Amino acid sequence: MRNEHSHGRRVASWQEHHGWSAANSLRRLASRPLGSLLTIAVMGLALALPLAFYLLLGNVQRLGDALGQSQDISVFMQPGQGAQQAQLLATQLGGRAEVASVHVKSPQQGMDELARMQGFSGALKTLDDNPLPYVLQVQPRADVSADDVDRLVADVRTMRSVDMVQDSGTWRQRLDALLGVGNRVVLILASLLALAALLVVGNTVRVDIASRSEEIGVLLLVGASASFVRRPYLYAGIWYGLFSGLLAAGLAILIEFALAGPVARLSQTYDGKLQVGGLPLWLLVAVPIAAAALGWIGARLVSAWQLRKAV
Fold first, then answer.
1. Domains of the chain: residue spans and CATH
2. CB 199 within 8 A of CB 299
3. Tens of pLDDT, residues 64-113
4. Closest Cα to residue 89, out of 165, 29, 32, 147?
5. Partners of 136 in beta bridges
6. What is the DSSP letter of 78?
7. Cα–Cα distance measured from residue 135 to residue 85, given in angstroms and rounded to the nearest whole number
8. Rounded to 5 degrees, what angle do the CA atoms 172, 176, 180 make?
9. Which residues contact 271 (CB under 8 A, 6 or more apart)?
10. Which of 86, 104, 164, 177 could be bridged to 134 by S-S, CB 3.0 to 4.6 A?
């Protein structure tokens, strides 16, 4: 019974010191507002940069979706080829394993599309006849590889009744490759800036410990444990990280609002298909938590090293 009571007192004392350390470290930050704000601002800006790049890449991805994500292949038949030849070629292509569907577009349908485009309606009225050929819109299956699509395009180009083949999926493959590079750059940038934030916290805590070296020496002499001494500094690192993460998330939201107007005007040129996308909620919540963890790690490493020097 006595052991249980003693254990309960130790737990209560441990909890009380954690609460005191959290509150005391927050008061220390508030006692030097300029220095604390500068540290938080530097860390917040560093963490906001990869969020801004991630937001930019996400909207470039949506732009690609608005322009057309599918790898449509436009097959232009030779002049003089009629509806029967176009239908025969469509049947032949539709029977290939890598083709999902084939849509035949007549010259009149192509002329109607041009008429709806701004600046072409007046010029089309001067034409005596329709110069447009039949066009086959070939949609490859979603599970085929890029190499299979390239072989399909090469085969279609060799067919007699085909005049030209336009593979609209090539630009999409290039865009996806560029986005892959961009995502890797964002990951590397986020890692480097996270390391920078960790070093900023570590240096701030190091300076704070050095300025209170005499007080720490007295605590160690009277028997205070290393974990007891460094606990307020660990909470200081958590506060630095948490506030900088909140600042980074707030800056990311401001960037979203700043992009909303220009993207809305751009979307109008694509019939409203392009919509600005913001950062997901889980990421905005995770950033302050991850930043607080970074602050704790930086403070933990530096405080352990400083206390070993003081012992």
1. 20-67+174-310 (no CATH), 71-167 (3.30.70.3040)
2. no
3. 665 555 567 888 888 888 888 889 888 898 888 888 889 888 877 777 77
4. 165
5. 75, 104
6. P
7. 11
8. 170
9. none
10. 86
